[in-house]
Specification:
Oligomer: single chain
Helix content: 55-70%
Radius of gyration: 30 Å
Number of strands: 3
Length: about 160
């Protein structure tokens, strides 16, 4: 019987030795210093969203249905690459978002807010884009609500 207790005691001592000592871990936490992360500026490598916005503004008029149909089968992608974010989106999807934003917005601020909510990964860049007002005006012309607003008032 005595020989049977020795392996059990050895196993018990081994198991106790393998568990980490939680008291020691808490003791060292008080010695650790706080680490502050430096807020680095975003470096943009590629921004084809902005280039595409410039092209839409330069065309001075856009027909969303025609453009979306034309781009539907093709794999035309817009890229935004920086040290913080990498975004890839199809041009047709981006045009749908712009059209929906222009149709549901009454002014440039709500247009920008809608775009930020639907493209949260680009919200920082959208706040820096100075051409959103022109993009809103051009895209609003081809939407249902924009056409309604353009009708002369009967009152």
């Amino acid at each position: 019987m005595k020989n049977l207790y020795y392996p059990i005691i050895a196993l018990f001592v081994f198991l106790i030795g393998t568990f980490p000592s939680y008291g020691q871990e808490n003791m060292y936490k008080s010695q650790l210093e706080t680490i502050y992360l430096k807020n680095t500026k975003e470096i943009v490598y590629t921004n084809t969203f902005s280039e595409y916005n410039h092209d839409l503004i330069a065309s001075n008029e856009i027909k969303f249905k025609k453009e979306i149909k034309k781009l539907k089968g093709k794999n035309n992608l817009l890229h935004f690459d920086s040290n913080k974010e990498n975004v890839v989106l199809e041009k047709a999807s981006y045009l749908k978002i712009i059209r929906k934003a222009a149709n549901r917005s009454r002014n440039e601020e709500t247009f920008e807010t809608f775009l930020r909510n639907n493209l949260p990964q680009l919200s920082n860049q959208l706040s820096k884009d100075n051409n959103l007002k022109e993009l809103y005006i051009i895209s609003r012309k081809d939407t249902f609500n924009g056409k309604i607003d353009a009708l002369p008032s009967v009152l």
